[in-house]
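Structure (tokenized):
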């Protein structure tokens, strides 16, 4: 599982923070992404690669718990997406919506979808567009704060 979070800084949470929903990952690799655009770098972007050896596990509740956890305690936007789908220019865009299977914004309950037909639906694209709007608002607020601090 690949989870990305913007807004919680560039310091990853410890692996113990991902012992959730009665599950403990078999492998856990957190890392801040390199080459972050300035607008994102101000907020921080961390990627978590979380693996389980048992492929029969139903990870829906775990995915919800992870998204809830990474959005806790700060204003953030997080999403779970298939491996190899990350690109700064396409974060939560319409073109990538079918590659995103879960998302969360601070203050809202995580949304997780595992059905591939649902991931390709217009309804799912609308939901991802709302998550992108929350990300745009987060980035905009950060830019306003940065401009204000430069003029003070």
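Design, position by position:
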């Amino acid at each position: 599982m690949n989870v990305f979070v913007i807004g919680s800084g560039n310091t990853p949470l410890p692996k113990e923070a991902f012992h959730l929903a009665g599950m403990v990952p078999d492998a856990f690799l957190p890392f801040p992404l390199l080459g972050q655009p300035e607008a994102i770098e101000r907020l921080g972007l961390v990627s978590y690669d979380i693996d389980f050896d048992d492929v029969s596990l139903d990870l829906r509740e775990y995915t919800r718990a992870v998204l809830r956890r990474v959005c806790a305690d700060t204003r953030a936007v997080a999403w779970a997406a298939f491996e190899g789908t990350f690109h700064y220019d396409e974060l939560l865009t319409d073109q990538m919506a079918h590659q995103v299977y879960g998302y969360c914004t601070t203050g809202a309950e995580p949304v997780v979808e595992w059905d591939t037909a649902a991931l390709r639906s217009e309804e799912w694209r609308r939901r991802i567009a709302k998550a992108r709007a929350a990300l745009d608002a987060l980035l905009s607020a950060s830019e306003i704060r940065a401009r204000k601090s430069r003029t003070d």
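Reviewer-requested clarification: The first strand starts at residue 2 and ends at 6. The first helix runs from residue 38 to 41.
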